[in-house]
Amino acid sequence: MFPVASLLTTVLLALSTAASPVEIRSPLITLPFARSLSTRDGTVNLLQHDQVRATALRDRGNAIAAGRLDRRQSNMPITTFEAAGYIAAVGVGSPATTYNLIVDTGSSNTWVGAGTPYKVTNTSVDTGEPVYVPYGSGSFSGTEYTDTVTLGSLTITKQSIGVASTSTDFSGVDGVLGIGPEDLTLGSLTNEPSTEIPTVTQNLSTEGKIPAEIVGVSFEPSTTTSSMNGELTFGGIDTSKYNGVLNYTPLTTTSPASYYWGINESITYGWTTILSTTAGIVDTGTTLILIATDAFNQYQSLTGAVSDSAIGMLRITTSQYNALQNLYFSINGVTYTLTPNGQIWPRSLNTYIGGSSSYVYLIVNDIGSNSGSGLDFVNGKGFLERFYSVFDTTNSRVGLATTSYTYAIIN
Ligand SMILES: *[C@@H]1O[C@H](CO)[C@@H](O)[C@H](O)[C@H]1NC(C)=O
Ligand SMILES: *[C@@H]1O[C@H](CO)[C@@H](O)[C@H](O)[C@H]1NC(C)=O
Ligand SMILES: CC(=O)N[C@H]1CO[C@H](CO)[C@@H](O)[C@@H]1O
Questions:
Q1: What is the pLDDT of residue 183?
Q2: Buried b (16+ CB within 10 A) or exposed e, 5-23
Q3: Ligand 2 pocket test: which of 249, 264, 281 has the largest number of ligand atoms within 8 Å of its C-beta?
Q4: Catalytic residue among 59, 104, 169, 308
Q5: Residues 337 and 207 occupy one common structural domain
Q6: Could you confirm whether 294 is annotated as catalytic?
Q7: CATH code of residue 36
Q8: What is the pLDDT of residue 172?
Q9: By mean pLDDT, which of 63-67, 291-295, 326-330 is the weakest?
Q10: pLDDT at residue 156 above 70?
Q11: Would you give the DSSP letter of residue 307?
């Protein structure tokens, strides 16, 4: 298990000491968050976790597209989170209790109570609405409340939040801060499946506390299992976290990627295009980078990698690593370069995922189905640790920019 107590302390310290310095320009709200890799059984199967999530995301999008909002009919949801998360300290109530929530762009319900029990205060209002969200192998169920939510230096009054009475597979965290599109809350109110629940970002915007419905996300690569190296900016972007130009791409119209932070992109390894322009998603809840099976097979053959039977990920030798080519992501006419070092799992964490220190493991993996599914790639944290990202609901677009980590040799 990762050290929850020390992580919590770090987050709280960072929040209290950095409350104003991290605020880049008023009225932006920045919320530092911590990377924490956790494991229940000694090692984690990252690949399996990410593939289960990708399948659940695709099924969920297809269910919404087909109007199947009833949870009994649709395989609703989203993921198991226990493997690897980025966690933000979020206050709920007045006086606020602090909860450690997983930051997730692939789901939109915000809820607490998995670990630290929900503390009712004067601002808590029980709506009596039962809520249930299944996430791949985990889930939570409970009651929807409205309460005051504190994100860094700002508060949202009457924010709708789920309060879990039961939850599975959320050991070590208190719940989820869902910053995906609002549509993804459809079906979660058991008695009113076609009612959407306003998200934290939406409420900040309707309450006039942020100028636009935008969330900027900064991840940084790390070679340790926990570090305080993420930052969420509500309402705008933190220009200190990237260099070069921030380029935007419109949200894709291709379903089911269109139900998430979906974009069109093509992927080229060296000089070979392995995935022609197609739709997929950018997702903070996925650790690796997943691509359609046909593209993955080409990637494996071009890199000479073999599938490691112990952990399922591709592995290469040191000399193959030295020959590794760049992986180019072409998005709306702009090319984002994932260097060889950006394509590998941090070698100091090889044993953490059940690997051996004598190999090099690739973070590019198989999504589990051929291209043409409408959700053919997931640019997870392996990608987002190398590029600053902006999730812009107001203008229906995703922004990306290079950072000082894009070309860094870290892993
Ligand atoms: C909560 O309400 C009680 C009773 O009305 C009041 O005495 C108390 O000061 C309130 N606490 C806060 C933090 O507002
Ligand atoms: C994305 O790709 C699809 C399929 O090729 C295309 O219809 C669409 O216009 C493209 N752009 C956007 C923004 O969806
Ligand atoms: C000011 C404002 O728009 N607040 C809204 C926040 O969201 C809740 C529901 O979650 C609404 O009831 C509030 O009106």
A1: 83
A2: eebbebbeebbeeeeeebb
A3: 264
A4: 104
A5: no
A6: no
A7: 2.40.70.10
A8: 81
A9: 63-67
A10: yes
A11: E
